[in-house]
Amino acid sequence: MRVLTVNAGSSSLKLSVLGDDDRPVLSETLVDDRDDGNRLGELLRRAGPVGAVGHRIVHGGAELTGPVRIDTAVMQQLEALTDLAPLHQPKSLDALRSVSELLPDVPAVACFDTAFHSTIPPAAATYAIPAEWRRRWPLRRFGFHGLSHAYATRRAAELLDRPVETLRMVTCHLGAGASLAAVQGGRSIDTTMGFTPLEGLVMATRSGSVDPGLLLWLVEHAGISVAELSSVLEHRSGLLGLAGTPDMGDIVEQSASGRDDARLGLDVYLHRLRSAIGAMAASLGGVDAVVFTGGVGENAALVRQRVADRLGFLGLAVDPVRNQAGAADREISPDGAGVACLVIRAREDLQIALETRTVLGVKP
């Protein structure tokens, strides 16, 4: 079955058509004018016939914990979840409607970024807030980037030639958004993002975890409005707020040339990242593999090296030559290392296609 995968971001729409063998027939990104029906229609005509469409949906809430075929009832559920992901869910739903109008007779499947983390136990998922609040509202750790973490997990098991059921992994999705997952036996048991994608690591423009008391102080004493606070934490914080640019490649270069703000940005990013990997390893009770994926994870050799340099007590190490050379989907740890370290290209499209075929009963 040829599958069209649709991945809606904040300012782009990634479309891929994967053939029966998962080789890409077409791959294109629409930017800014992605809602231009004519351009989208022309792209789909060039792609040729497809047997199904798989949509990346950021939030499935507490009920949609696995991929599901889209119908009217599911659409209503997805729309009702918009309040939980107001910056992401509308983009996904807009893309879903646009593609469905052009391909009305092709079955469509929703694949959720939250679903992979639905296996997190209550100890990791529950916030220490009043039970009344938790009963009234879905206030829990959801976790995100699940499609990327799920793909990285199964691809790492393939590269290591070990059954996924035997492995304890920390998967590091490091892109503009960033999160870690503690994966035991192929199942997520902990993650760094929480109720929203703001929690956790320092990201390109997102703050990551900030003391709630600091935010309350800004509202109460500095007169910062909730709207401004939301905008700043989402779009003007993270690496951009620390170093003046959200681009890790630029920050690495500027840090090496002696710019203090770039050096601080890199140091804060690495401090949070190393601490979080250690926390995920603690949740697992030990770790067999650490996986780097996403734009930063795949391309920033210095980040990988400096992470490993401080986590040697876990058995983590990288070989300098392997770390610098080669394409993604490779092991970069030295021979005999206690913990395997891998770089894997982010392929959410392959995970979406797999889940879509599974829902529709198409065997691989």
Essential attributes:
single chain, 364 residues, alpha/beta, Nucleotidyltransferase, domain 5, 2 domains, 6-stranded mixed sheet, 15 helices, 12 strands, 42% helix
Explain what this protein looks like in three dimensions:
It is a single chain. This protein has 364 residues and is of the alpha/beta class. It is globular. The chain is 42% helix and 18% strand. The mean pLDDT is 94. α6 crosses α15 and α10 (248-256) crosses α11. It folds into 2 domains: 3-112, ATPase, nucleotide binding domain (Nucleotidyltransferase, domain 5, 2-Layer Sandwich); 161-343, ATPase, nucleotide binding domain (Nucleotidyltransferase, domain 5, 2-Layer Sandwich). β8 and β9 form a beta hairpin.
What is the fold's blueprint, element by element?
Blueprint: E1 3-8, E2 12-18, E3 24-31, H1 37-47, E4 52-57, E5 68-69, H2 72-80, H3 89-102, E6 108-112, H4 122-125, H5 131-136, H6 146-160, E7 168-174, E8 178-184, E9 187-191, H7 212-221, H8 226-235, H9 238-243, H10 248-256, H11 260-284, E10 289-293, H12 294-299, H13 301-310, H14 320-324, E11 330-331, E12 340-343, H15 348-359
